[in-house]
Structures are given as structure tokens and as C-alpha cells.
Design brief:
The protein is α+β, with helices and mostly antiparallel strands. It folds into 2 domains: 115 residues, Orthogonal Bundle (Arc Repressor Mutant, subunit A); 216 residues, no CATH class. It contains 15 helices and 14 strands. The longest helix is centred in the middle third of the chain and has 24 residues. It is elongated and about 75 Å long. Bound molecules: iron/sulfur cluster (2 copies). The site of one iron/sulfur cluster (SF4) has 14 residues, from helix 14. The site of one iron/sulfur cluster has 13 residues, from loops.
């Protein structure tokens, strides 16, 4: 077995997964140079100092450090510096090997080919792997302007409230829209927090921003019809993406691959008051990312089963016929990212028994 196949197998051991595919082998060839593979294969998914990594591969520490630095700068290896020491880890496919090298930027031809490969790999096998997670990896947050204050609002339900719990925020360009290239929606709307934010900013993949700018990112995204999504946990978030239905890998699980359970909905769903509908069609034609709203003659029709509770239809409804109401079947998300990953691993194991 060649080293690229071994690396695929290693990445497949991460809970996010990396199913075998000739397309993924090609992706790995774009991301890792042959002379970097021994080091990549010796990394763990948790951060370690260089001396621990060196002890497993028998190369000189200086050579290993230098190669790890180059890989971290390209966004294929995670790095964290504490004092004088830098710690390194292998990155999973999401968030990691798909997003970070694209955020870093590369020459156009290489980027186009990498985008093509990721798209096929996602549509063919990676999307299915992401979709089978129970609970889902990601959750929808409602457009803040659409949140219905008639209900008790829990902090985990609101993207800006979740951001309040983070120390560091970084803003990057959306790798899904860069690679997808299907729409003109804004690119500079990808928010990362804390450790990931620090890494991305230090390595030139994102820039640090303050909380006010981050809140403005959410506002701009809502105006542009983008859906807030984030990791499906109640504690500190890893990231908030602002997704379009045509390019974004997590939203495309629902919109393209038709896995209706692949994203946790927000705690809300849309409710339509047909008597107030003017038939303007804005909700169906410009706002709803899933096709849950359509027009029948001069009246909107809502398919509740297909609604993810993003609230984008509410904020632009010309007749004020749409509002968000609480879902009765809403599941409380796991308390932390750690709990989310553990639940996914345990449930996968049960399914495979
Ligand atoms: S109907 Fe569409 S736009 Fe409205 S909340 Fe549901 S998914 Fe979002
Ligand atoms: S945006 Fe509002 S008024 Fe216009 S069609 Fe949709 S529900 Fe009716």
C-alpha cells in the first residue's frame, strides 16, 4: 500500500472520516508532497510537541520541525504555539483539509483542479459520510432579525449569543463558495473561534476581528440570504459558517444530496398565514434555501418537512405572513464539541454492531 493510501486510512479513523476514493487520493497528492508523508503519517489528531513526533519516526528534529512548519503554513497540519514551544496535529477533512488550504490561497489552476476533485469526492462519498452522523455535525441558527421573542430564547439558539462565549474571533473567505463558484454571495463571512481562529490568523488564512465586526458579518450574511450554521453543540462553538444552498458543503447535504436529517434544524420552523400573503414570491424565489416555500398561483405554500428554521423568509416577507414558531420536536444539542463527537462515535458503533 502506498503512503497516500495509508494517509487516507489514517484520516478515515477520525470521527469525521475520509472514505477511500481515487479522487481523495488525488486530493492528498495536491495537499502533501511525497517527502512529507512519513511525518504526516506519524501525526496524531491531538496536538503534540515535535520531540514526541520525532521519537516515532527517527528523523532529525530540525528537519521534522522545518517540514511541519511548511505544512502548517499551507493549512494541512494544525499548529499551536505556547511560549517557546509549538505543538502539531493532523487535521481531519472538516474543518481542516478541505477549508484551510483554500483559505490560504493557491495558484488558480491548482485551486480549480482541487475544487473539482473535492466536489466529486463530496458528491460521491464524503457527503454521505458526513450525513450519517447522529447527532448531525452542524446546526442551523435562525436569522437574528427573525427570532420570535414570544418564546423563551436559550443562548445556544442564537448565533451572536454563542459568539459571546468565545475569546478570539477570526474572519476568512468562504472555501465552499471559492471552490463551488456557483453564486455571487459574499465571500468574507466565515467565522472561526478561539484555537482555530488563532491558528488561521497566525498562518495567514484569516484575520482577527472584534465582536462588533463579527456581529456585522452575521447581519451582512442575513441580508445576502445566507444561512448561519455552526457546530451542533450548546457550549463554545468551533465556527459559524454563512452558507448558500448552491456551494456550501454542509447545506448541500440537504439541498443537493437530499439528506433531510443531515443538519440539525434550528429550534424554530416557519409558519405561514396565507390570509396575509400578497403572492409577491420573494420567499420562494429569493430567500428559502431548501425549496420549502413555493408559489401556487398567487399564494405561497409551505412544506414544513423541508424547513430548517433559518428564518430568511421571515425578514423579507412583504405581507408579514411568515414567522418563526418553536418546533415541538426540537432536540437539545450536546453540551460541548467533545460530547458531540463522542455521541457520534458511540451511535456509529451501535449502528455497525
Ligand atoms: S421556509 Fe425556508 S427560508 Fe423559511 S425558515 Fe424554513 S427553510 Fe428557512
Ligand atoms: S414573501 Fe410573504 S407575501 Fe410574499 S409570497 Fe412569500 S409569504 Fe407571501
Amino acid at each position: 500500500m502506498n503512503h497516500y493510501d495509508k494517509l487516507q486510512q489514517k484520516l478515515d479513523q477520525h470521527p469525521v472520516g475520509a472514505p477511500a476514493s481515487k479522487y481523495f487520493r488525488e486530493i492528498l497528492k495536491y495537499l502533501f508532497q511525497p517527502e512529507e508523508l512519513d511525518i504526516a503519517l506519524s501525526l496524531e489528531f491531538s496536538l503534540e510537541p515535535v520531540e514526541d513526533i520525532v521519537s516515532r519516526i527517527g528523523l532529525e528534529e530540525e528537519e521534522v520541525s522545518q517540514k511541519l512548519e511548511v505544512m502548517a503554513d499551507r493549512g494541512v497540519v494544525l499548529a499551536k504555539t505556547v511560549g517557546e514551544k509549538t505543538y502539531y496535529a493532523l487535521l481531519p477533512n472538516y474543518p481542516g483539509l478541505f477549508e484551510y488550504p483554500i483559505m490560504k490561497g493557491m495558484e488558480k489552476e491548482k485551486q480549480q483542479e482541487l475544487s473539482r476533485l473535492w466536489h466529486i469526492y463530496y458528491m460521491e462519498s464524503m457527503g454521505e459520510r458526513l450525513a450519517e452522523a447522529d447527532p448531525p455535525w452542524n446546526r442551523i441558527f435562525p436569522a437574528e432579525e427573525a427570532i420570535n421573542e414570544e418564546y423563551e430564547i436559550l443562548p445556544y439558539e442564537v448565533a451572536s449569543e454563542m459568539m459571546e462565549q468565545t475569546r478570539t474571533i477570526a474572519l476568512a473567505e468562504c472555501p465552499c463558495r471559492i471552490t463551488g463558484g456557483q453564486c455571487e454571495s459574499p465571500l468574507d463571512v466565515c467565522l472561526s473561534f478561539d484555537g482555530a481562529a488563532q491558528f488561521l490568523a497566525e498562518r495567514g488564512m484569516a484575520r482577527l476581528i472584534n465582536r462588533e465586526e463579527a456581529r456585522n458579518v452575521l447581519k451582512r450574511a442575513e441580508e445576502a440570504g445566507l444561512v448561519h450554521t455552526g457546530s451542533n453543540n450548546a457550549g463554545k462553538l468551533l465556527f459559524i459558517c454563512n452558507c448558500c444552498p448552491c456551494c456550501c458543503h454542509f447545506l448541500m447535504l440537504h439541498t443537493h444530496l437530499r439528506y433531510r436529517e443531515a443538519l440539525a434544524t434550528s429550534s424554530y420552523e416557519a409558519e405561514l398565514d396565507v390570509s396575509s400573503c400578497t403572492g409577491c414570491g420573494i420567499c420562494a424565489e429569493e430567500r428559502c434555501p431548501t425549496g420549502a416555500l413555493s408559489l401556487d398561483g398567487d399564494m405561497a405554500v409551505l412544506d414544513r418537512e423541508n424547513c430548517i428554521g433559518c428564518g430568511l423568509c421571515v425578514t423579507t416577507c412583504s405581507g408579514e405572513a411568515l414567522k418563526l414558531v418553536k418546533r415541538e420536536d426540537h432536540r437539545h444539542p450536546p453540551d460541548s464539541v467533545r460530547d458531540l463527537v463522542q455521541n457520534i462515535v458511540v451511535n456509529r458503533k451501535k449502528r455497525n454492531e
